[in-house]
Amino acid sequence: MRSAKDFFRPLAVGAPTPPTEIPARPSRAIHFFDPSNPKMAAKVPDMVGSVDVLLGNLEDAVKADNKVAAREGLVEIGQNTEGLGGPEAQTQLWTRINALDSPWALDDLTTLIPAIGHTLDVVMVPKVQGAEDIHYVDRLLAQLEAKAGLDRPILVHAILETARGVANIEEICGASPRMQGLSLGPADLAADRRMKTTRVGGGHPGYLVRQDPASSSEADINASRSVFQQDLWHYTIARMVDACAMHGIYPYYGPFGDIADVVACEDQFRNAFLLGCVGTWSLHPKQIAIAKKVFSPSVEDVAHARRVVAAMSALGGDGTGAVMLDGKMEDDASLKQCLVMVELAERLAATDPELAELYAAAEEG
Ligand SMILES: CC(C)(COP(=O)(O)OP(=O)(O)OC[C@H]1O[C@@H](n2cnc3c(N)ncnc32)[C@H](O)[C@@H]1OP(=O)(O)O)[C@@H](O)C(=O)NCCC(=O)NCCSC(=O)C[C@H](O)C(=O)O
Ligand SMILES: [Mg+2]
């Protein structure tokens, strides 16, 4: 275990100082593209400015024969795309490297950091099993940053895709000051857990609770009864939210593979938003708008939150006391929730003019 005094010291001579806080940059949609796919790569410049994060995916969904082309394609994009990546950019540049036990992960990092380390904001690491995986990436990044002369640390994001990773979730989140967040990897996680599903994220019609029968007679048991589909991912997302909040980092949903079902996609994203996630992955251009809508607080919620803040301020501004608003009691605890909402809205509005206009109109109206 590292001593508390060493925790914020660089892990290599000449590497940038690790961050003491992870900036809350907008990251509602982490849009995945395959840099070896010319059609997808061609769309990247037009997406800059309108999506919070563009992620060059090097891992699953990229064919083995294209691994080198994907890495080189990402270098080309990172070096030549105006406005993409870096601390001031509206659109961050992330990558998902190959798994640490694969033949490609080492070359991914040793190629990308010298070539585009100055614009690369976050490295997403798949199939993280425990703190040891983060420690390995942490040290290697420090060495590569020092060698490349970078002046800011690249952050690390872990995907939860194994039962061991979920069991070690708190130690993963706290393994390095570089840890930026966690995403759910529902497809790999389902396989590792031996869940009996075949989907990439989302619900399952068989995972349900049925209304009690009117009586224990055979007729009533076989009668039609309401069923309520449950969320397969609730437990894991809730664990992620708590572990991330405890460590001051950010939880994200992950992939929703049924690209055609935009309605269920929105529902699944909203569940994650309500539980505390700050964003999700987008696999197809049409999922970007869904993610941006869901992970931005609604105009109605922001308007209500502002009213609570104003009512509690009128009471003295120190959070003590209680008021009635629309028949409901508001106090310090609801004020704190409302401040989460208002602060998120302000942060998003600062980089999203459309949203800024909507929130401003609600304030005036
Ligand atoms: C899912 C797709 C294979 C669908 O592609 P396609 O059939 O080409 O869709 P469309 O014909 O509707 O595409 C319309 C045009 O848009 C371009 N396109 C498609 N997707 C993207 C994209 N992500 N970024 C940019 N541009 C995109 C198409 O090229 C078409 O262009 P044009 O012909 O010029 O009009 C495809 O969307 C895709 O591969 N998406 C990414 C998949 C991915 O990244 N998967 C990995 C993440 S999920 C995962 O790994 C699981 C996880 O780890 C876990 O364990 O749970
Ligand atoms: Mg996966």
UniProtKB/TrEMBL annotation:
<dbReference type="InterPro" id="IPR011206">
    <property type="entry name" value="Citrate_lyase_beta/mcl1/mcl2"/>
</dbReference>
<keyword id="KW-0479">Metal-binding</keyword>
<feature type="binding site">
    <location>
        <position position="188"/>
    </location>
    <ligand>
        <name>Mg(2+)</name>
    </ligand>
</feature>
<dbReference type="Pfam" id="PF03328">
    <property type="entry name" value="HpcH_HpaI"/>
</dbReference>
<keyword id="KW-0456">Lyase</keyword>
<feature type="binding site">
    <location>
        <position position="161"/>
    </location>
    <ligand>
        <name>substrate</name>
    </ligand>
</feature>
<dbReference type="GO" id="GO:0006107">
    <property type="term" value="P:oxaloacetate metabolic process"/>
</dbReference>
<dbReference type="GO" id="GO:0016829">
    <property type="term" value="F:lyase activity"/>
</dbReference>
<keyword id="KW-0460">Magnesium</keyword>
<dbReference type="GO" id="GO:0000287">
    <property type="term" value="F:magnesium ion binding"/>
</dbReference>
<dbReference type="InterPro" id="IPR015813">
    <property type="entry name" value="Pyrv/PenolPyrv_kinase-like_dom"/>
</dbReference>
<feature type="domain" description="HpcH/HpaI aldolase/citrate lyase">
    <location>
        <begin position="29"/>
        <end position="199"/>
    </location>
</feature>
<feature type="binding site">
    <location>
        <position position="96"/>
    </location>
    <ligand>
        <name>substrate</name>
    </ligand>
</feature>
<feature type="region of interest" description="Disordered">
    <location>
        <begin position="1"/>
        <end position="20"/>
    </location>
</feature>
<feature type="binding site">
    <location>
        <position position="161"/>
    </location>
    <ligand>
        <name>Mg(2+)</name>
    </ligand>
</feature>
<dbReference type="InterPro" id="IPR005000">
    <property type="entry name" value="Aldolase/citrate-lyase_domain"/>
</dbReference>
<dbReference type="InterPro" id="IPR040442">
    <property type="entry name" value="Pyrv_kinase-like_dom_sf"/>
</dbReference>
<protein>
    <submittedName>
        <fullName>CoA ester lyase</fullName>
    </submittedName>
</protein>
